[in-house]
Specification:
Elements lengths: L1 H30 L2 E4 L3 E4 L6 E8 L5 E7 L2 E12 L2 E14 L2 E5 L3 H4 L2 H6 L18 H18 L7 E2 L1 E2 L4 E8 L6 E11 L2 E14 L2 H11 L1 H25 L1
Parallel strand pairs: 2-12, 7-8
Antiparallel strand pairs: 1-3, 3-10, 4-7, 4-11, 5-6, 9-10, 11-12
Helix pairs in contact: 5-6
């Protein structure tokens, strides 16, 4: 009988231990930041003029929230014009490799106030930490800064780099929301939206969710065919142009 009681006691202890672990795990899960997008697909059609993507989330402990939307990496070719013999010509060029094609942030405060410099550097937060610096072998000093600033100006002018952070608005003590604007020329590909819960400049928790920006419909089929069959697409385009010109010629001649 005593052995049975000992076995029962051991089993009860194990059950309570597992329950305790489950409860601790449950608390940890509850304390984690949660967030999701209003849509995981941005469909680009012929009449696409931009879009807005909303993000909703919650945190269960006090702190700040930072959201970063980053587009697929690509290479950017920069050209510099100079006046040569009275004519403006491209006299220098620079290629930035592996640069985010889109970059925007939203936060509950200025990045410098809610994050530490070490946190920003470690997690690629801010324009100074996303790989825009040129290798010394390409350019250094003021020349490298000039090229970098020119790249940022061009990307900001296109709307694909947004210097000012959007506002993260709390709907209560725990719930929050924010919104990102995508321009009409937004690059296609897979985007990643990272949401950070911060306290005292350090990251408490984070979540990342993908966002697909894709051409759909007839435009997508033409785009894919042009990239996969460049030579044939060129021939077809020339043929269509010739036919259109001939039809126009006939129409004007009859007129």
């Amino acid at each position: 009988m005593r052995k049975i009681c000992d076995v029962f006691s051991l089993c009860l202890t194990l059950i309570l231990g597992l329950a305790s672990l489950w409860t601790v795990g449950g608390v940890k899960q509850v304390n984690a930041i949660e967030a999701d997008l209003s849509s995981h697909l941005v469909a680009i059609r012929a009449d696409f003029s931009g879009d807005r993507i909303q993000l909703y989330g919650s945190i269960n402990t006090p702190g700040d929230v930072l959201v970063i939307m980053r587009g697929p990496d690509t290479d950017f070719k920069m050209l510099r014009k100079s006046r040569v013999a009275g004519i403006w010509m491209n006299t220098a060029g620079m290629t930035f490799e592996g640069v985010p094609s889109f970059y925007a942030t939203a936060s509950t405060g200025p990045l410098e106030e809610i994050t530490s410099s070490a946190t920003r550097a470690l997690n690629n937060i801010g324009f100074n930490n996303i790989g825009l610096d040129l290798p010394v072998t390409k350019a250094a000093g003021s020349l490298a800064r000039d090229w970098k600033n020119s790249l940022i100006r061009n990307l900001m002018r296109s709307g694909n780099y947004q210097l000012e952070s959007a506002e993260v608005i709390f709907l209560g003590e725990h719930l929050f929301k924010t919104e990102f604007e995508l321009p009409s020329n937004v690059p296609t590909g897979t985007y990643f939206v990272s949401v950070y819960h911060l306290r005292d400049g350090q990251i408490v928790d984070a979540r990342t969710t993908p966002l697909s920006v894709s051409k759909i419909g007839l435009e997508a089929e033409i785009y894919d065919y042009a990239h996969l069959n460049g030579a044939m697409y060129g021939i077809i385009a020339i043929f269509i142009a010739l036919i259109s010109g001939w039809i126009g010629h006939l129409a004007f001649r009859k007129g």
